[in-house]
Fold this sequence. Notes:
- The complex is a heterotetramer of chains A (323), B (278), C (585) and D (317).
- Helix content of chain A is 33%, strand content 24%.
- Chain A is α/β, with parallel strands linked by helices.
- Chain A has an eight-stranded mixed beta sheet, sandwiched between helices. In chain A, strands 1, 2, 4, 5 and 6 form a five-stranded antiparallel beta sheet that branches.
- Helices cover 71% and strands 0% of the residues of chain B.
- In chain B, helix 1 crosses helix 11 and helix 3 packs parallel to helix 11.
- The longest helix of chain B is centred in the first third of the chain and has 36 residues.
- With 317 residues, chain D is mostly helical.
- Chain D has a domain of 186 residues: MetI-like fold, CATH 1.10.3720.
- In chain D, helix 6 packs antiparallel against helix 7.
- The longest helix of chain D has 36 residues.
- The two termini of chain D are 13 Å apart.
- The chains are: A alpha/beta (323), B mainly alpha (278), C alpha+beta (585), D mainly alpha (317).
- Chains in contact: A-B, A-D, B-C, B-D, C-D.
- Chains C and D meet through helix 8 and helix 15 of C and helix 2 and helix 11 of D.
Amino acid sequence: xxxxxxxxxxxxxxxxxxxxxxxxxxxxxxxxxxxxxxxxxxxxxxxxxxxxxxxxxxxxxxxxxxxxxxxxxxxxxxxxxxxxxxxxxxxxxxxxxxxxxxxxxxxxxxxxxxxxxxxxxxxxxxxxxxxxxxxxxxxxxxxxxxxxxxxxxxxxxxxxxxxxxxxxxxxxxxxxxxxxxxxxxxxxxxxxxxxxxxxxxxxxxxxxxxxxxxxxxxxxxxxxxxxxxxxxxxxxxxxxxxxxxxxxxxxxxxxxxxxxxxxxxxxxxxxxxxxxxxxxxxxxxxxxxxxxxxxxxxxxxxxxxxxxxxxxxxxxxxxxxxx
Amino acid sequence: xxxxxxxxxxxxxxxxxxxxxxxxxxxxxxxxxxxxxxxxxxxxxxxxxxxxxxxxxxxxxxxxxxxxxxxxxxxxxxxxxxxxxxxxxxxxxxxxxxxxxxxxxxxxxxxxxxxxxxxxxxxxxxxxxxxxxxxxxxxxxxxxxxxxxxxxxxxxxxxxxxxxxxxxxxxxxxxxxxxxxxxxxxxxxxxxxxxxxxxxxxxxxxxxxxxxxxxxxxxxxxxxxxxxxxxxxxxxxxxxxxxxxxxxxxxxxxxxxxxxxxxxxxxxxxxxxxxxxx
Amino acid sequence: xxxxxxxxxxxxxxxxxxxxxxxxxxxxxxxxxxxxxxxxxxxxxxxxxxxxxxxxxxxxxxxxxxxxxxxxxxxxxxxxxxxxxxxxxxxxxxxxxxxxxxxxxxxxxxxxxxxxxxxxxxxxxxxxxxxxxxxxxxxxxxxxxxxxxxxxxxxxxxxxxxxxxxxxxxxxxxxxxxxxxxxxxxxxxxxxxxxxxxxxxxxxxxxxxxxxxxxxxxxxxxxxxxxxxxxxxxxxxxxxxxxxxxxxxxxxxxxxxxxxxxxxxxxxxxxxxxxxxxxxxxxxxxxxxxxxxxxxxxxxxxxxxxxxxxxxxxxxxxxxxxxxxxxxxxxxxxxxxxxxxxxxxxxxxxxxxxxxxxxxxxxxxxxxxxxxxxxxxxxxxxxxxxxxxxxxxxxxxxxxxxxxxxxxxxxxxxxxxxxxxxxxxxxxxxxxxxxxxxxxxxxxxxxxxxxxxxxxxxxxxxxxxxxxxxxxxxxxxxxxxxxxxxxxxxxxxxxxxxxxxxxxxxxxxxxxxxxxxxxxxxxxxxxxxxxxxxxxxxxxxxxxxxxxxxxxxxxxxxxxxxxxxxxxxxxxxxxxxxxxxxxxx
Amino acid sequence: xxxxxxxxxxxxxxxxxxxxxxxxxxxxxxxxxxxxxxxxxxxxxxxxxxxxxxxxxxxxxxxxxxxxxxxxxxxxxxxxxxxxxxxxxxxxxxxxxxxxxxxxxxxxxxxxxxxxxxxxxxxxxxxxxxxxxxxxxxxxxxxxxxxxxxxxxxxxxxxxxxxxxxxxxxxxxxxxxxxxxxxxxxxxxxxxxxxxxxxxxxxxxxxxxxxxxxxxxxxxxxxxxxxxxxxxxxxxxxxxxxxxxxxxxxxxxxxxxxxxxxxxxxxxxxxxxxxxxxxxxxxxxxxxxxxxxxxxxxxxxxxxxxxxxxxxxxxxx
Lengths: 323, 278, 585, 317
């Protein structure tokens, strides 16, 4: 495999709320290689989106605090860049597709204006060349009549088309890394498939590494090679996608997988749940955050935090992992 | 409400504002209970006496005590503020609630029309018109403000009621067969209390400012003292070198408005749940 | 001038424009002479139009002088018929109302027409009361439909330049009424063309004509065709001892109006008016009382502060009128009462309030202590004023007041609630609060003296004219220099809505008023007037009164003797500006 | 077609509003309004004379008839004559309105532009000291009464007790420098009194706009602060900004100029209105209220139409 295009080491994030400061991401590290696809999975509110925003440096300064050893994109540490330099990286080397296509685009500019301004910002050149690139990008993303799309305003498009336009915008500079934050959550199934297909195309056509953030294991499975499982701000398991589904080692991962409704006429209505509820982030249990809900908990789990145990490519943070 | 108070307590500016408002409210109470400020009408000295132990802020042209008049002015401001805020908030809540609950219906249309009409008449002209129509009645000013100030409250309440109406617990209330008005007044409007509270402080500020300007123009208070009347007197006096009325009235007015503005801000922050989102 | 110093020739040929800038403390309403009710409107109207008579510029007491009239009238033996010749060759200003736009000659018929207008309901005129029931056939003319084609036997143009007036009964004040703006001569053509809009589009034959006007100022320019009548100090009643230092002598023989342009600034706020004057924006000001302290260095005798001596001329003048507070005698709670005992008690209460009133303090606070307080309705400005009159009426006597209250068995609980009316203004409110304080000193509970504030002066007038106000604070400005004008204020038949706002109705007073009405000023009439004054005092119908002392201040550049009473606007034509060569584009 | 029906609907609603505005103001201001009878009457009037004046003022006519006449007058812009000066109301308005516009426009524009500028700056630095400073100053500005501002400015700038560099009253404007001379202090007063409110309002709008998802998108794609603020935030906030501006025009013109003009003796519409109030000049009052109502409704309608230009979302909804 080639060199990593995105490396994050020891990222921690705190959030200030009216009830005080609380930690939402706790010391996570991972890396992605060029052309690779990695899924970041976890329940809502576990810190996935915060992690993505931290990578791009978009955490709101007024109420968040971040500590991190480095965030490297194509080997350059984002943390060491000034505003100007970082803006050159954003949208060019690393791009992002957001969860809500409905609001992620500026309602008062046309699709064409918004996409071409990204191109002009990073690649430069004339208005015409930017327009050409825009049309091409839209066409590659699967629009049949890109010349009409460029003239439309976001509200004139459906959610799926907006998300596709977002992807066209994200891919216009052929970034090395694309972060897709729940790109399909708000969309129906057929559109989901279309989006996944486009992400796959990006990877194969431009060698873009993709960090796919989702709570939906099915989506992760359909696209990703590797999976990171996150719970209450911590990474619990990191492994190959197929291996995770076949032999999850962390009890939480196992629980997650068993929760996927299996659509089969033989076993109607068999939906498993993980007992208990996700703890409130202001009141996290000591030790392993999952321990109160885990049926394999021992005293140790409540006293100290388990570290990643490396077993080849399969890493897990658990004192009593599943076999 | 408890959490609102908790959040408010942590806002130093807001608490400062609350303190100022409380001090003025206290002053008002002393006037109402007859402890101080009763000598506002009495000539107790000569013209233009400077500050002394007997006359803390000096005296005015007639020889009346400016300090007592300032105190009484605070009571006037509070009286107008309370009456106007109370009635206009009530009116705004009821009409805004009805309007939102029956939105797009004829009730809504009529209320919106009344609102539009009242919004289209320049306020001071309207106040003057009410003063004409109610020649010499002491509550003409109150009425003019109540009748015009409810519209903003109603607009905000209407939006909120439309929002709440779509929520599940309202569906549930409907499902168990509660009447429309019961749901509106028992279950929907109580949920707008935090908005009404913030809006009430804003109306209070507007009422005080307006009282001062109307009294200044002679359309306001009839028998009594208002900071506006003191300013009206002073606008001629300052050029003759007498600043007592002007400084006392404008400083008192500034302090009270500042206090209310800070409080309104803090209340708005404390009741705004959006700020707590991740 | 600086001719020959390289000035462009054009400025040499252009005559410098002399501008007199005047500050007025109020704005005129309508400038239609028939509607010139306010001091301010009258002040302007007499400059835009011609009246038959005016007062002499410098003579005091005021003396009549022919204006448009060629001479004083010829009066018949019975005193009822006056024949007045008018000047020939006087023309109205050029105006589109006239044929070819050129002002035609002023004729006797124009005067007849102008007086008729007051009796035409369409005019909305305000001067009819001056001639009502006085001129033969005039009131009948109105009741027959105000048809201008109908002749009036008592008001006729004998020819183009002779007017004949026949009175129904002796009217000693008639000539005074012919100095009023109301009696100005208006051309019918202008009414035909402008109708009601004549009020903003004057067409007259006065010394000035209108250039522009808005709510804050008016500009008048010299009427180039105004008749040339050389100024004569002697004729105008020049009094060297009192008027010698003003530099008026250089005007002898010159032809008024002396200035080319009048700029009248209407500045109602005292402070703003004083500022405008201090900044040199106007030549003249009636000094606001709030500035008396800085303007004067002494009160007795009145003397100007040294810092102003070199730049300003100064003159104090007694206001032709007075300020007083009437009790509404038609109100049973304080005025006449059918029950004799109650009637007496009410009188005792009124007299107690009169005694509680502190004129000294009122004078000190609102008139800088230099107003003249006098008992009754005969102020120092009229010859009938009695310096040895009943001064007890204007002296504060709290003991006496309390005694009267006791006598009338008045106490805190049974004292009536009084409504003190005034139109909305800061000063009126202060005057009210002071009044209430005076009454508090004799134990009148403050909550029983209530302010009744009116948004407009008209509404206040309506209220007291309909008897809805108990205490009526008023000021009276005399229409002409004859005490009759004051005495009629308490004449029973003039009760509200007439000028008798107190609704005072004393048969004896009414009888005396009637008997004196045909008398000219004379010792006999003076005796009657003083007797009437005493009746008024005995009945305590009014808390009265004070006559203001006005201070006029003007730039030394301006040669003038300003006046605010009967001469009014007539003096403007005699104002001269020295070295003021402002060229107005 | 849609647009035409939209416009007609707006206009119809506008007419309904105008009827309401004129009715209420007529009822209060004219029917129960001031009475000039006794001001326009000579001394010692007879009851016949009183009746004549009342008749000539039209006070004796039935309410509905007078109201219909009023609507007719407004419709034909034949507004009658002032009861005070006898001038045609149209010419009073034609003379005073331009003065008021010239008087308030600089202050209005400056107040809004400065407010927008401060708001952008504060919003971008949200929570940091420039924001706190600006917001603190705004609250102070909001707490000072217009009256106090005017009195203080007048004393300090226009009288010998202060710098005495501007005229204390009047409006003798004949060229640009004299215009500046007369307009400066009123403008300053207007800016001071509106700046606090404008800044706070616009900041709230900006903060909301800056918090929007599409702004995050822009930042994720490397847009500069300048581009975000001046291209995207500003264009998106145009609707609330324009609404505020449009709606405040009739009020600034009447209510704002009322105090300014009566203090500074400027013969604009505010002073005319003030005088009409204090003297009970009904034809002027009727015209001012009626026309403001119409102006307001026009602003309302224009505002709705402008939405379509600024916000592409409106046309299809």
